[in-house]
Design goal:
single chain; about 425 residues; alpha+beta; Rossmann fold; Elongation Factor Tu (Ef-tu), domain 3; 3 domains; eight-stranded antiparallel sheet; six-stranded mixed sheet; 7 helices; globular; disordered N terminus
């Protein structure tokens, strides 16, 4: 039974914030939380008291988000902090990512699942090297929507010429990148101008406030609804009297739409079957789509295990043991050719060996440095890998789930790299 529109879950928007030190990113998130009434009175009281004890003549809204003691002391954000809030129109998850180049891995982590990237610049400083680097990283990660928030407009007397110059410069730079949707918004996080409500001080600006843009952004068409991709995470066999013959395959849909009656293929076995039912808790669904987590039951008793992939017979992912990928390296010890690592791709685990490191990408200039012997901490480069068993992939630009993977140090179990598949086969 399909729930009535009023009963459907509220739409969720994930967005990642990035900015240079002192661009006002934490203050902006604090303003969003405050003006959307997403914080409790006692939280606000604590922030006001802390601000007063520090001698500030204003309430430092950045204290609402800077939870780590060290980042409070330094006044910078050094880790990814996730914040949750909701308005009557939409739910939000904010990934507050650090701005420094030495925390590139943190930004990659925070932005990898984002629907939108929010880059802050200081209106007084204009575009900086970090601003451009953030845009390049968001483009590499195929984040489909980007907002450039020109902050601290109050400190340039809300001058339209200052905004127009930054807007034109960034728009020209973004044209060189893969950024399908760009919105540039002038605002003052400290004063609240154009954050939640339109600013009376910038009547020349005819676009939406930041909150209005976030609430009304259309993201449903960003998901891959063409290619059915269902990585099996767990096989459910209750073995109870009530569900004596029940056998279901649980996982999160990575792409496409699943319906009872669909003919599907199970990889790697190549066995075909028909979807008998799709279960969600105690409810049977008429259809399911990415990124829903469901249980799929098949009409035939075929062998399906964790790590297998269910797809359409005539639309299958690439089965390969050779990968060409952009890798962000996250460990202190460098990545070297012939190095052996563990890999996690969707629900499938394997081992890999590094065949070649083709080049290191300078994320500030987009220059490709081929005279290298490895990738260091926070560096990004194109790497060829050989996998010990076939995995089922798509290009990252087509499907960000089946087109990505993580690399793991087998000795420590630590995640040391994140990869985006460019081509396979």
């Amino acid at each position: 039974m399909t729930p009535a529109p009023a009963d459907r879950p509220m739409d969720l928007l994930r967005f990642a914030t990035a900015g240079s030190v002192d661009d006002g990113k934490s203050t902006l998130i604090g303003r969003l939380l405050l003006d959307s009434k997403a914080i409790f009175d006692d939280q606000l009281d604590a922030v006001e008291a802390t601000s007063a004890s520090k001698g500030y003549d204003y309430t430092d809204l950045a204290l609402l988000t800077d939870g780590l003691r060290s980042e409070r002391e330094q006044g910078i954000t050094i880790d990814v902090a996730y914040r949750y809030f909701a308005t009557p129109k939409r739910k939000f998850i904010i990934a507050d990512t650090p701005g420094h180049v030495q925390y590139t891995r943190n930004m990659v982590t925070g932005a990898s699942t984002a629907d939108l990237g929010l880059v802050l610049v200081d209106a007084r400083q204009g575009l900086t090297e970090q601003s451009r680097r953030h845009a390049v990283l968001l483009s590499l990660l195929r984040v489909p929507h980007l907002v450039l928030a020109v902050n601290k407009m109050d400190l340039v007397d809300f001058d339209q010429e200052v905004f127009d110059q930054i807007d034109a410069e960034f728009t020209a730079f973004a044209a060189k990148l893969n950024i399908p949707d760009l919105q540039v918004i002038p605002l003052s996080a400290l004063k609240g101008d154009n954050v939640v409500t339109r600013s009376a001080s910038m009547s020349w600006y005819e676009g939406p406030s930041l909150m209005h843009h976030l609430e009304h952004l259309h993201i449903a068409s960003d998901r891959d609804l063409r290619d059915v991709r269902f990585p099996v995470q767990y096989v459910i066999r209750p073995k109870s009297d009530e569900h004596h013959d029940y056998r279901g395959y649980a996982g999160q849909i990575a792409g496409g739409v699943l319906k009872p009656g669909d003919v599907v293929v199970v990889l790697p076995s190549g066995m075909t079957s028909t979807i008998e039912a799709i279960d969600l808790y105690d409810e049977q669904l008429d259809e399911a789509f990415a990124p829903m987590s469901v249980v799929v039951r098949l009409s035939d008793d075929v062998d399906v295990s964790r790590g297998d992939m269910i797809a359409r017979v005539n639309n299958q992912p690439i089965a390969t043991q050779d990968l060409d990928a952009m890798v962000c390296w996250m460990a202190n010890a460098p990545l070297r050719p012939r190095q052996k690592l563990a890999m996690k791709h969707t629900s499938r685990s394997a081992r890999v060996v590094v065949k070649e490191i083709a080049y290191r990408l300078d994320v500030n200039t987009l220059h490709r440095d081929t005279d290298i012997h490895g990738l260091g901490l926070n560096e990004i480069g194109r790497v060829q890998l050989r996998v010990t068993q076939p995995i089922f992939v798509d290009a990252y630009e087509r499907n960000r789930t089946t087109g990505s993977f993580i690399l793991v140090d087998e000795a420590t179990g630590a995640t040391v790299g994140a990869g985006m598949i460019g081509s396979a086969g």
